[in-house]
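Example 307.
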Amino acid sequence: MSIQVDMESLLLEVLTETSSSASEGKVASYIPELSKADPSLAGVAVMTPDGLFQAGDSSHPFTLQSISKIITLMAALEQRGVEEVFARVGSEPTGDPFNSIVKLETAEHKPLNPMINAGAIAVCSLIPGSSVEERFSIILEMLEAILGRTVQIDQAVYTSEKETGHRNRALAYFLKDTGVLEGDVEEVLDLYFQQCSILVDCTDLARIGMFLAAKGITWSGQRLVSASIVRLVTTFMVTCGMYNASGEFAIQVGIPAKSGVSGGILGAVPGRFGIGTFGPALDPKGNSIVGVKMLRELSHRLDLSIF
Ligand code: GLN
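Predicted structure in complex with glutamine:
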């Protein structure tokens, strides 16, 4: 049997075995537009040096949400350098939910890491430019170079989050008060909401995962980001990428990953694969139920854990 048939039948098998668990989860509703997602959708894609393999709803579009945090972090590190970025954001896991505000007052003013909302908003404020459009184009440019295609934002999700993102607004104004956030707060929030609303599918996530697995080299062979930046970002994916479930995910799955509340999970297996999963029904910590299960199965069957 060819690699193609093997990998695609494995993906289909894993998807079929896990997709019924979607009924155990709930679609995110705190962003009203996300609540319209069909909880039974499930898709998976794997990108290897041999090509792209997929199963299920792997071409169904969804918004990047928190997965965008890794793109913006790479862009900020490229544009501003390690020292400036880590003057504004820390590198420790929190154990708190992704949108928690509590540690900003009780730990230190700097958000604990760039994968929680407070940290990602602080990182957004470091993206240079004289307008939101100019700043957003830096993020888009990096993502589009990785994907080899242009991307769009989902206007309805963007508007919905902009209108209801009170918690993120609170985080951003707190950060402004403590001097962590640079520039105009609403402009930074606008940039953050836009990056969260970028439309992708599982195959895109698999491609980004492969880019990270290849230490910053695109499918077409272009070095886009230094290997040291990719090492930093993938380390954050291990320690903080699955929010306050990162420890258990490291034990059960053992690959650098980043999830988003619309149901996507991006996995990068260093030197080997990129994986993208999608399933909008989430567990209480905000990770896709089916996505985590599929990744666990793939990790066991293909021996993917880095530990
Ligand atoms: N846009 C979402 C928010 O800020 C992203 C969160 C996530 O995907 N966990 O709440």
